[in-house]
Predict the structure.
Amino acid sequence: MTGRSLTHLSLDDLDAWLAGQLGPTGHAHLDGCAECRELANTERILVNHLAALQVLAPAPGFADRVMASVAIPDPFALRSMESARRRLFTSRRSVAIAAMLALAVAASMAASVVWSLGHRQMIAELGSWISGSAADWAWIGLRGAVSSVMEQPWYGGLRGLAGSPAQIAVASAVASLTYLSGVLALRKLMTLPTGPVSHASA
Amino acid sequence: MPSGGLDLASATDQEVVVLARHGQQAAYRELVRRYERPIFALVFRMVRDRELAEDLAQETFVKALNAIESYRPEFKFSSWIFKIANNAAIDHLRRRELDTLSLDGSPHAETPEAIEATALQIGDRQETALEEVEARELGGEIEAAIARLRPEYRSCILLRHVEGRPYEEIADILGLPLGTVKTYIHRARNELRELLAHLKE
């Protein structure tokens, strides 16, 4: 602020005045210039009113709604990745080993793709042979299992149970009751304790 | 990573961001707590619709927090989040023009319930009833005057004189040269002075 006493305050001067940093020449001009003094005072009033505007707040629960929409990374996964990364890059040797392994995996995948493209006929034949054989083996397995069950000593009694509709109904009811008791027992075992745990406060 | 005994409320934004990057939910919540009011206030004064402002503020936080990994710590976190909020508001204003200000509810609210539901929630300042009425009337005049400014001027004046951000940070937030920001702020103040001149009488 030199040689400004004859010219009005610039916008930067006004900012400096609002921030309490106007130099002595500027103050001298303000003392002698009613126009600038009025402008500066109006600016100060306006700025003070702007700064004092009401604090606006979003509705309650805003933070909860934001948090529900944010995908927070799992700290355990982050720690595991960080520790693996740190272990991997501890020395040049470990980096070289990791690079070689990655290269070997990439090379073997590429070789596999190339081989597959060159032997499409063979892969198709192999596929049809495997599906045909699988059906045969499944049928043989099923027949074997059924024969094995029929040869058991308890098979006659089991077959006798299915002799009349009343016996089937009794057998089904007993089986259902056994199943339900098992489910109830499991639920009871898996329920978390609701009362205070004696050693928890220690 | 545990907070290592770090008190979140007294930690710097950068420290809280580091904890958030390590998956600490409390750090995310702290960032929301710190900026929910200024971000909402900025967006509300830009778009002048409470419901919309909440949506845009929420969108701002979700965008920022989901991309916390891409935040560069050499910049201020406040600049980053204000930039996202301002862009969201400006994008909206470009798509749709709103020209009525209502302190008592959304201009789109049609029923008394909707008006009440969208009315402004004033933050916790202690004032007497008379002071509150006077401040509300004067504040309403100022809010209305701000609403009549061009969106670029509005962003600048709100960030400078309502949020108290320095010129350099405003230039960073708005992606404008420092000189342009200063010019916009001075023009905005001139326009506000003219718009509020009747209050002097």
Q: What stands out?
A: The mean pLDDT of chain B is 82. The longest helix of chain B spans residues 25-47.
